[in-house]
Amino acid sequence: PSSLNPDYFPAKLWQLVNNPKVASVQWDGRGEGLLIDEHLFLREVLEPEGADCLFKTKCFPSFICQLNLYGFHKVAKQPVATWTGAGDATGTGWFRHHFWNLHFQQHHPELLAHIKRLT
Fold first, then answer.
1. CA 115, CA 117: separation in Å to the nearest integer?
2. Average pLDDT in the 92-105 region?
3. Domains and CATH numbers, the chain
């Protein structure tokens, strides 16, 4: 929603998952959770230099900590071999991660305003 600060972590995440150019993050089948291909996410989102850098970290565990601070919960961790996205990390030991937050849903951007950073 336009009323949210674009620098707000959940707003950045919302833009990312809805960006068709980003292959490393996608909605789960129900549109109620995020699927993240760890290896591809590192290359595509966390490691690029310059203006394309969305988050302040280049470290995947730090990104996961941010998700946790905003109330996201891990649903599952599966080998990339089961990933249906565009990742190319099959067989490398990398994982896809599944996260869920009650107020982060594909067709309800108005719910983002309810996501607060935990203290």
1. 7
2. 84
3. 9-114 (1.10.10.10)
